[in-house]
Amino acid sequence: MDKHNLSPEDTSRIIEMAWEDRTPFEAIERLYGFSESQVINLMRSNIKRKTFNNWRARVTGRKTKHSKLRSPDVSRGYCATQYKPVRKR
Question: Helix (H, G, I), strand (E, B), or coil: what is residue 76?
Fold first, then answer.
């Protein structure tokens, strides 16, 4: 998928996934076809510089952001309590 063909919703979701500690870059690549370097470029061009610098410092070398560095015990990309069920009114 080309950066220029992304909908605002897809761009927002990629940024959200990049911020999530337990979502590896490989999951983003599987879903959207964006490599780690493309995600970095997308983040750089869509968030404020200071925010980008803080994000880069956080994810650089983080084991949970790279499937190859993860413990084999981790089989999911998010915490089981991360997504709350929708309440019916």
Answer: coil
Rounded to an integer, what distance in angstroms lies between the CA atom of residue 55 and that of residue 15?
11
Query: CA 14 to CA 28: how far, in whole Å?
Result: 7
Tell me, rounded to whole angstroms, the distance of Cα 31 from its chain centroid.
11
First and final C-alpha spacing in the chain: 38
In this structure, are residues 69 and 26 in contact, taking their beta carbons and an 8 Å threshold?
A: no
pTM comes to 0.69
Give yes or no for a contact between 1 and 34, defined as CB atoms under 8 angstroms apart.
yes
**What gap in Å lies between CA 10 and CA 80, rounded to an integer?**
23
The CA-based angle 49-70-75, given to 5 degrees, is: 110
pLDDT by residue (tens digit) across 15-60?
A: 999 998 888 999 999 999 999 999 999 999 999 999 999 999 988 8
